[in-house]
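R.M. (postdoc): so does anyone remember the format we settled on? I'll just put the structure tokens first.
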């Protein structure tokens, strides 16, 4: 009788401790292709808690990110595709991509620097978006994986690539820490003055990619101010208080609670697509945003040393893209929180400068830290 009792206890303990979901990792062979004379590949990072990230060196894209829910079950929380051919065919969707030289928009696709006017590709109406027609999201990076938790990507952006001056040497390091953080660090140097604003464009759904609206996610942004935009989503140049407006996320609030209010800024962006001015400490990292998904219990905290964070509510997703699990990505089925300098900073003297000069080193960091409620 004792033997049978102990056996029953062991079975119960094993059943309770085993997650019910097993990650279906993407096949690395499906990401191997020669593009622009360079080899693309897929790299897998794992931490000691079982969290997994898969990243391709084509555009530095985070292809999937497996994060535990409150029951310990892993779910993939980022949008993406099953193979490199789908990424090549997708155009400017930017799922999971590294963005540069300049993340976000530059008005009228031009800027003046040291008495010289530089013309950029106008790939978003009259404006330049995310580095131009072929930004860092569409190049093949050199890759090295020194260990199971680290991926290092490097790229030399030549002088006048997409209209930007200077040879820019860029290094990006992804680290999947044992604190369930995806840490993204950026370094850059240049031989001519040039604007630099690097970021990551992952689209998140903490329920799991393709699992419906993100409007019921709770969002908190550590910002008293934001930068209002015109109809082309270019900032006017003012820093305006969020208080008393639907832009106020200083307390945890459902993303969709006020998204349909009669408010000009929401009409311009078809919802939220705005840069927030982070309430910064004097130095070091600061918590810029927090997201809570009530059903799965997943949480995501965003830390950075940047002055701004772009909150985008998936307003231009329209169901035309089908993701890794075969589900369409519909209107507001994913959100982005991109740490950055402000949009159009090269044309706004009162915004923090994005100009990198020879002899300086650009450094930016973004940490997406996952937990459960």
């Amino acid at each position: 009788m004792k033997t049978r009792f102990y056996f029953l206890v062991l079975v119960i303990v094993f059943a309770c401790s085993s997650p019910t979901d097993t990650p279906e990792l993407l096949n690395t062979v499906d990401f191997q292709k020669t593009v622009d004379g360079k080899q693309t590949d897929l790299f897998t990072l794992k931490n000691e808690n079982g969290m997994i990230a898969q990243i391709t060196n084509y555009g530095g894209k985070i292809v999937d990110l497996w994060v535990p829910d409150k029951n310990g079950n892993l779910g993939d929380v980022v949008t993406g595709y099953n193979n490199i051919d789908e990424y090549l065919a997708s155009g400017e969707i930017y799922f999971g991509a590294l963005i540069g030289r300049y993340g976000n928009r530059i008005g009228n696709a031009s800027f003046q620097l040291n008495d010289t006017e530089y013309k950029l590709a106008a790939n978003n109406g009259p404006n330049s978006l995310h580095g131009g027609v072929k930004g860092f999201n569409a190049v093949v990076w050199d890759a090295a994986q020194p260990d199971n938790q680290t991926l290092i990507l490097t790229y030399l952006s030549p002088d006048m690539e997409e209209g930007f001056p200077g040879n820019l040497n860029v290094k990006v390091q992804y680290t999947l820490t044992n604190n369930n953080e995806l840490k993204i660090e950026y370094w850059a140097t240049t031989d001519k003055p040039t604007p630099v604003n690097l970021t990551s464009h992952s689209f998140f759904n903490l329920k799991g990619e393709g699992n419906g609206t993100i409007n019921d996610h709770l969002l908190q942004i550590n910002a008293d101010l934001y930068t209002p935009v015109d109809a082309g989503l270019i900032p006017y140049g003012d820093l305006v208080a969020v208080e008393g407006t639907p832009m106020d996320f200083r307390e945890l609030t459902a993303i969709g609670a006020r998204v349909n209010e009669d408010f000009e800024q929401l009409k311009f962006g078809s919802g939220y697509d705005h840069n927030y001015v982070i309430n910064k400490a004097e130095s070091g990292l600061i918590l810029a945003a927090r997201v809570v998904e009530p059903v799965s219990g997943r949480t995501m905290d965003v830390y950075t040393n940047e002055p701004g964070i772009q909150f985008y509510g998936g307003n231009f997703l329209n169901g035309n893209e089908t993701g890794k699990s075969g589900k369409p990505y519909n209107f507001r089925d994913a959100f982005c929180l991109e740490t950055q300098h402000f949009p159009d900073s090269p044309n706004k003297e009162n915004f923090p400068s994005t100009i990198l000069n020879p002899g300086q080193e650009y450094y930016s960091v973004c940490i997406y830290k996952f937990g459960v409620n």
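R.M.: ...and that's the designed sequence above, right after the tokens. Also worth knowing: Residues 20-211+296-372 form a domain with the Beta-galactosidase; Chain A, domain 5 fold (CATH 2.70.98.10). The mean pLDDT is 93.
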